[in-house]
Amino acid sequence: MTTFDLVIQNGTLLTMDPENRVIENGCLCISGDTIAHVGDHIPEDHKASKTINAGGGLIIPGLINGHTHAPMSLFKGLADDLPLMEWLNQYIFPVEKNMDADFIYTGTLLACAEMILSGTTTFCDMYLFEDHVAAAAFQSGVRCLVGEVLYDFPSPNYGDLENGFVYTERLINKWKNNPLVSIAVEPHALFTCSPELLERANQMALNHKTPLIIHFAETLAEVEAIKKKYGRSPLEHLEALNIAGSHLIADHAVHLDPSEIEKMAGYGIKVIHNAESNMKLSSGIAPVPQMIAQGITVGMGTDGGASNNNMDLFTEMDMAAKLHKVQAMDPTVMDALTVLKMATIEGAKALGIGHITGSLETGKKADIIVIDTRKPHLTPMYNPFSHLVYAARGQDVKHTIINGRLVMENRQLLTLNLEEVMARAMEKAVDVRKWVSSQ
Amino acid sequence: MTTFDLVIQNGTLLTMDPENRVIENGCLCISGDTIAHVGDHIPEDHKASKTINAGGGLIIPGLINGHTHAPMSLFKGLADDLPLMEWLNQYIFPVEKNMDADFIYTGTLLACAEMILSGTTTFCDMYLFEDHVAAAAFQSGVRCLVGEVLYDFPSPNYGDLENGFVYTERLINKWKNNPLVSIAVEPHALFTCSPELLERANQMALNHKTPLIIHFAETLAEVEAIKKKYGRSPLEHLEALNIAGSHLIADHAVHLDPSEIEKMAGYGIKVIHNAESNMKLSSGIAPVPQMIAQGITVGMGTDGGASNNNMDLFTEMDMAAKLHKVQAMDPTVMDALTVLKMATIEGAKALGIGHITGSLETGKKADIIVIDTRKPHLTPMYNPFSHLVYAARGQDVKHTIINGRLVMENRQLLTLNLEEVMARAMEKAVDVRKWVSSQ
Q1: Cβ of A391 and B76 within 8 Å?
Q2: Which residues of A touch B382 (CB under 8 A)?
Q3: CB count, 10 Å around CB of B417?
Q4: Which of B80, B386, B416 is best to mutate for the A interface (most A CBs within 10 A)?
Q5: What contacts B115, CB < 8 A, 6 or more positions away?
Q6: Mutate which of A341, A377, A437 to disrupt the B interface (most B C-beta within 10 Å)?
Q7: Are A326 and B279 an interchain contact pair (Cβ–Cβ within 8 Å)?
Q8: DSSP code per residue over A317-363
């Protein structure tokens, strides 16, 4: 008699596997950190140490937030509806100038609480003091791919750029064997990073076999700045620097023409789409249906708390699905299944961890969420994919499991003291207000 | 010593009154169905029969859903991501052909449950068997303005059009003195209603001093059809029929040029914006910032459950705010306060009930919701308006009061048996599946 550590039953499994298997009244069994069985009943000669009753709800892979600045969760609502430069100069920069490691740690705990509560099991982060982002994610039990932002000017964390490379190298070595944390090399953007910085960052990523992550073609101003400075488009600039490749994750990728999309597909560049942030900041509408049609792997992100202002991937899915329909004036664009894939298996593939997470398959890590569908806004249910994209919200997630560990049960966080995290966040907000007003 | 029936305290009052007063640690007192006091403490020589502790959260006017087809809550997720005609012919029409009063009643109870749970206290409905919509809303304790849809073809409810006018007149007389239910005259759209129908409906609305409500300029196809049939634009058609006036509520109003917007403002025509539905059905993007700039009163609606697929006005606000920013490529467009007004006081004004509801003012009916902000996605809070639009969700509503009556307390519905409503809805869904598959 073998014993599974955790068994989830009495729910509909949406596996998001290559066959898109849907198993009604399914059963998923976990051994340690790994999915040991996916089927319609627990295998014979097995029993469960602990069983979760999904209550007739949906059992799906944990969601993948492909682009975040998690600590900016402390800035949400600080400043909205402003022109970009006013937003940056009067709010964001004054705060970033003053923040420290404890600020980052607190902000990340807050973001992890929000993510767990809304069904996100993996996030990909770019910000400052990322060692502390990693530590907070690890404490929270959330899977992550993180990297220290590199740019041409001094960093509030590491100071001169040279130290940024040292810091990144240390991160890579420190977290190398961690079960939850992976490190990427993360130059900020083409307009904030010199060609030398970009080439060196790329070399470091290739040497360590980590992803290279960059904000890319997010705004028209950025595209014009690159054209003016280098006489070529952002993609041509990547090509000239020999950076375009399958290890590259391009966040945003809003302003691209059809030939560039085709080229990006050829290079195997991955894209993270941030519909809500691109809308809120008026950056533009990324040509996502066209990218997917060309075979580009496209994941989905919320971006930072100051430009969204939430980390709920359910509403991100809803907004992305609807945005592209009205943009194309075609209701068949970005159907629910395509969008749910972006937030699960395609998102995992975009981050280079499609073999680890993003679907419910034997041998993968157990990153799983259970959705409570016994609510009026999810009743009746004709099509679970439709409900997940167009009707469900993060607060419908009832249980969250990451790497085999139950991190939320019946909406209670098990890895964090929520009251304490919120109290610490409110203390940091006092500092934020002070820093902004002393401008 | 006078006694208030209900007192809400220990929260921040966002009154949405003409001065947009915000009262921290405020106190709102209710006598019967009416707001008797708004201030920072309970008046001397008064006490409370019942007190609600807002727990440091936000106390705001109940939200106004300006355009719904409430019973279609039973269709949500039935068919998505389809071309319009396939959606209508294969799904919506077969179901509507078969439905009856009990179906409508059940669907409306389900919609009312969702609305109360997500902070909507008033809705404006257009559909079939509206007497049963009104009855279900009244049972649920939700304020509504409803009307039977009128069009040139036979109705599954009343049969020939002549009976539709009789039915509408009966509705008006039956519900005349109801504290929650009001009746409107509701021709479906310009392309489904003959000029005679429209003129007669308009006359009935004027005679009874009720609003006249119509789908208007929702799609390009509709605009082209009107131009082809009558040789004039939809607005010119309204003008020719002498229908354009301040009693007219135009749902959608997507396809308008600047001169038409100016004219509509001149007539005092009200508009209900349905961002999510217009996106999901690829109808287009209504020129809302331009309409508001011209002085048109614009409210906000979710439209029916089959084209959204939810009735959460919080995500509707979020989506509308972001959609218009990216459309205008200007992040200052549709700021949070403007959007919250659309979902409260402007929505109430659009429905002709701005003197009754939509703001927290002494003498108005007590339609109030309390938002629980002690959650990580709402912590910290720099600006309550921002959080309500960009971060809060319907499930953050903790208490809902309509017409002085507590209809939800601590997220428990007090007017409906939720389990029973969902069970009945699931039974109706069995019929829906049968009707669709027997096509």
Answers
A1: yes
A2: 77-79, 429, 432-433
A3: 12
A4: B80
A5: B65, B121, B123, B142, B311
A6: A377
A7: yes
A8: HHHHHHHHHHHHT-TTSS-HHHHHHHTTHHHHHHTT-TTTSSS--TT
- Phi, psi at A161, each rounded to 5°: -50, -40
**Which amino acid is located at A180 in the chain?**
L
Is 90 exceeded by the pLDDT of residue A88? no
Residue-wise pLDDT for B260-275, tens only, equals 999 999 999 999 999 9
pLDDT at A365 over 80: yes
Chain B's closest residue to A424, CA to CA, is B380
Among B284, B383, B393, the residue with its CB nearest the CB of A326 is: B284
CB half-sphere exposure, B414, CA atoms < 13 A:
14
Confidence of residue B287 (pLDDT cuts 50, 70, 90): very high
- A100 and A129 Cβ atoms separated by less than 8 Å: yes
Residue B84 predicted with pLDDT over 90: no
Q: Pick from B282, B284, B426: which is nearest to A379 by CB?
A: B426
Q: A63-350, what's its fold?
A: TIM Barrel (3.20.20)
In this model, does residue A89 exceed pLDDT 80?
A: yes
Can you tell me whether residue B303 is helix, strand or coil?
coil
Residue A435, pLDDT > 80, answer yes
What average pLDDT does range B311-334 have in this prediction? 98
Amino acid at position B290, single letter: Q
Over residues B94-104, the pLDDT tens digits come to 999 999 999 99
Shortest Cα distance, chain A CAs vs residue B81, angstroms = 4
d(CA A420, CA B141) in angstroms, rounded, equals 38
Pick the residue from chain B with its C-alpha nearest to A377: B114
CB contact under 8 A, A118 and B377: yes
Helix (H, G, I), strand (E, B) or coil at B348: helix
pLDDT tens digit string along B9-42? 999 999 999 999 999 999 999 999 999 999 999 9
Using an 8 Å CB-CB cutoff, list chain A residues near B394: 377, 393
Min Cα–Cα distance to chain B from A57, Å: 14
pLDDT digits (tens, 9 = 90+) for B296-307: 999 999 999 989
In this structure, CATH architecture of domain A2-61+365-413? Roll (2.30)
Task: Write out chain A residues lying below 8 Å of B321, CB-based.
Answer: 280
Q: What is the dihedral of CA B89, B92, B95, B101, to 10 degrees?
A: -140
Range of lowest pLDDT (A13-17, B202-206, B304-308) = B304-308
Whether cis (ω within 30° of 0) applies to the bond prior to A65 is: no
A257-292 per-residue burial string, b: 16 or more CB within 10 A, e: under 16: eeebbebbbebebbbbbbbbbbbbbbbbbbbbbbbb
pLDDT of amino acid B87: 86
What proportion of chain A, given as a percentage, has pLDDT over 90? 96
CA distance A154 to A162: 10
**Residue B216 reports pLDDT greater than 80:** yes
Structural domain boundaries of chain A?
2-61+365-413, 63-350
Name the residue among A77, A328, A381 with its Cβ closest to that of B382: A77
Helix (H, G, I), strand (E, B) or coil at B113: helix
pTM assigned to the model:
0.98
Binned at pLDDT 50, 70 and 90, residue A84 comes out as: confident
Helix/strand/coil for B234: helix
Answer whether B379 sits within 8 Å of A432, measured CB to CB: no
The residue written with tokens 């082209």 in the block is B224
pLDDT > 70: what percent of chain A?
Answer: 100
Give B107's contacts in chain A (Cβ within 8 Å).
none
A184/chain B closest Cα distance in angstroms:
27
Contact indicator for B36, B73 with CB cutoff of 8 Å: no
